[in-house]
Automatic annotation (TrEMBL):
The active site is at E141. One of its GO terms (molecular function) is zinc ion binding. The lineage of its organism: Bacteria, Bacillati, Actinomycetota, Actinomycetes, Kitasatosporales. This is Protease HtpX homolog. Its cofactor is Zn(2+). Its main location: membrane. GO terms for biological process: proteolysis. Residues 77-290 form the Peptidase M48 domain. It comes from the Bacteria. It comes from Streptomyces regalis. The chain crosses the membrane at residues 12-34, 40-57, 150-171, 186-207. Its EC number is 3.4.24.-. It is a multi-pass membrane protein.
């Protein structure tokens, strides 16, 4: 079922191209491992099993990692009310609503499709945002679900993890599985490690490029659905500023999930690291919302109250 979130053909095209390139990359990766390790059953079964597990259980894994828990309407009536209104406005199924007991102000969506999705907000976000700002953030997250880029980024991100896990498993099977630790073993291990490093580097850059674009697409879709880009800009400015003041040590556990967050779990993004960032800069996002605000004739400037 098509939601009322504005479709984004460029996002759809980018997701298709990214998955196609990653698919080719990993077909080559698996083929190389089969040639090097001479055990296609091991490689294929482990790769397929892990990818399948990630696809089906990604929402549970993300919630567990971020200490999120599903909450009922009786516990968080205002939060459920906002999600209900947005889902009715967007004509889409209501996702599971969860809350993470973290002071870091943020939100994320995960799940394999709109019928099996989770939207999670942190208690730090609920404490800091006004109701209309919270609505803008949740509209952003729901647009990820509606555009199905949550499932794409979940699968794409996991492929990089698979490379590391397969290499580690293959190494220990060679080391402790009866194989001799001779020069041939060392050559095979070095070749596997080299292939894995190349695959990870390429997939890393492809995923980051897609992630940055999908955040801009979600900002656009949320602003157009609610008709209030200035409110989303206000939430962005507030959340980004507060995250920058949180000690780095408190953000480390969250950094692995940056691609899923409303804003990255880091402070200011150095210009030299833009290529490796999961999100566009705050300035890019505010500028885009400013243009949408002008098109809609909003009287409040983005970033304002």
């Amino acid at each position: 079922m098509q939601s009322r979130f504005k479709s984004d053909r460029r996002l759809t095209a980018r997701m298709g191209v990214t998955l196609f390139l990653l698919g080719l990359l990993y077909v080559g990766f698996v083929a190389a491992l089969i040639v090097l390790l001479k055990s296609w059953v091991l490689v294929v079964v482990v790769a397929a099993g892990l990818l399948g597990a990630q696809y089906w259980f990604s929402d549970r894994v993300a919630l567990f990692a971020m200490r999120g828990r599903v909450v009922e309407r009786e516990e968080y009536p205002e939060l459920h009310g906002v999600v209900d209104r947005l889902c009715a406005l967007a004509d889409m199924p209501k996702p599971v609503v969860a809350v993470s007991d973290m002071d870091m102000p943020n939100a994320f969506a995960t799940g394999r499709n709109p019928d099996h999705a989770v939207v999670c907000v942190t208690t730090g976000l609920l404490r800091r945002l006004e109701p209309d700002e919270l609505e803008g953030v949740l509209a952003h997250e729901l647009s990820h679900v509606a555009h199905k880029d949550v499932a794409v980024i979940t699968v794409a991100s996991f492929l990089g993890v698979i490379a590391g896990l397969i290499v580690r498993f293959a190494f220990y099977s060679q080391l402790f599985g009866g194989g001799r630790r001779d020069q041939n073993t060392a050559v095979v291990f070095a070749a596997v490690l080299g292939v894995s490093a190349a695959v990870y580097a390429i997939s890393f850059l492809l995923i980051r490029a897609l992630s940055r674009y999908r955040e801009l697409a979600a900002d656009r879709a949320a602003a157009l659905l609610t008709g209030r880009p200035s409110v989303l800009a206000s939430a962005l400015t507030k959340v980004s500023g507060d995250i920058a003041r949180i000690p780095t040590k408190d953000l480390r556990t969250a950094q692995a999930f940056n691609a899923f967050y409303f804003t990255p779990a880091l402070g200011r993004d150095p210009s030299v690291a833009r290529l490796f960032s999961t999100h566009p800069s705050l300035e890019q996002r505010i500028d885009q919302l400013g243009r949408i605000s002008a098109e809609l004739g909003e009287t409040t400037a983005p970033g304002g109250a």
